[in-house]
Amino acid sequence: MLTGLHLLLTYQCNSECDHCFLYCSPRSQGTFTLNQIHTLLDEARKINTLNTIYFEGGEAFLYYPVLIEGIKAAREAGFNAGIVTNAYFATDDEDIRLWLKPLVELGISDLSISNDPYHYGDEKENPAARARNVALELGLPVGEIHIDEPTISKDEDREKGEAIIGGNTMFRGRAVDKLLEGLPTRYWEDFTECPYENLESPGRIHIDAYGNTHICQGISMGNVWQTPLSVVDDSWDATTHPICDPLVKGGPAQLIREYGIDHENEYVDVCHCCYQIRKSLLHRFPQYLGPPQVYGLE
Ligand code: SF4
Ligand code: SF4
After folding, report:
1. Burial classification of residue 185, based on how many CB atoms lie within 10 Å of its CB (0-12 exposed, 13-18 middle, 19 or more buried)
2. Domain spanning 1-147, CATH architecture
3. Is the predicted pLDDT of residue 153 greater than 80, yes or no?
């Protein structure tokens, strides 16, 4: 049951974090126009179960006027509205109030701020912390997104005390190119299910300015500029999707078997395996996998 729509307002970001699973950077393309947001909201209103629209990226505050107008339109359409940001703009308390006050007036239900070692290292006094303090002072509902770097420890519960990876980094996107070194790996046939996404009945999806409807980053249910969002949602059937069907039946291992793909023997985790296999299928299924930039291909 679809309850949340996450608009990737832009793929562009002032940062270029090693763990970014959308491969965002200052050079990224793909930003929503206000007109596109209105089109999408008209469709969103037809989906009775939908209650929340998030605006994220990339860095949504880079396109501040469009962000504000988009939230205003979402609120007028009757949705809760949330934002995800790295708070790069938070240089001084008085200035932060200027950025955040309109959000108070619009009645947003969540301001999620990324604050972790990937974004600001060990700095305690950083823009995220400053933005959080001012947001709380203004009475905004604030959340924090904190991604820990990978750690390695022994799993005493397992037979041979196998190494396990701690932290909550997802090994997709740039993380696969930047963060795998030295991490333990597992045999590909172990990866028989997707543990994170409900591919048969997604509760939330991400949509980019190209129209891709991401059920997981880089897997598109359909293109909303070709097929209206309400139809994409209503007609969703994972069994007819060439990537989701094998993933539901047997995880990335099934994807490998189904398409007879050359592959490594071992991967760091299930998402690493899934991402690498999908990347090698990109040219075969460009309408279901993409855009190429989230696979690090410009
Ligand atoms: S993780 Fe967030 S802040 Fe970092 S590059 Fe990606 S979108 Fe930007
Ligand atoms: S990368 Fe694959 S295994 Fe990981 S959450 Fe996404 S669909 Fe599931």
Report:
1. middle
2. Alpha-Beta Barrel (3.20)
3. no
